[in-house]
Specification:
The protein is built from ten helices and two strands. It has about 260 residues and is mainly α. A hairpin with a 2-residue loop joins strand 1 and strand 2.
Amino acid sequence: MQGNNLAPAKSRPTLIRRLDPRTKLALLLASFLMVLLPQRPEVAGLATLVVFGHLALARAWGELARIRWLLLTLALFSLAIWSWLAQGPNLLFWRVSRESLAFGVATFLKLGTMMVAGLILLATTPVEEFFLGLVRLGLPYAGAFAFALALRWVPEIFDTTRRVKEAQEARGLIWEKGTPLERLKRHLPLLAPIFLLTLRRSQTMAWALEARGFQRSKRRTYLLEIRMASRDWLALALAAALLAGFITIHLLNWDRIPGLKF
């Protein structure tokens, strides 16, 4: 379980990276709540700015660049779907109103910001620290181990996909030739070897865990030790203050879009 799929192997620790994993999980939860409460894109944009400030402190811009196309697709989907489904009195064209367009922008900000907040956690927290943080929060050892192992398995699947594609290219298969539909059809046969290789790796992992006596003893020991420091309490206090501000705005109905209907 060594390593992480997003955190660089060699990088100078930043303030965010030095935080306790429990603090990072609390910051993730606070980010979700801040961005989920408002309807208006202006207020959701404030929460987005807060999360991007978090991203800047973590120095994780490189990881953000990896999902830029996913964010662009999410923006187009949110604007197209929610601008059409929602309704408002100030019609702009066809079924799209000023209120529904604002709601579509706010929906993209919510989903995109939550993705970025999760990305920050993965980019700044090695899997072993994340696992220990879950255990310290009271999650059963087996559940925390399975969750952390699932995160560690994501880059393994991508690596398997890359190796299968390279093997097919060595046999003369050209991926970029033809229409997008034809290229998609060429990728479909990859599913079988990727699935079989992943299943084989999973079986090997299960044998390795069984050979090492996984869950034979209820008392566990850990190589790492984590403890809350003053910077963690300061980060939690700042997150609590920001969250309280957004909750106040929500209770006062300052984050609502007047006339919005579904």
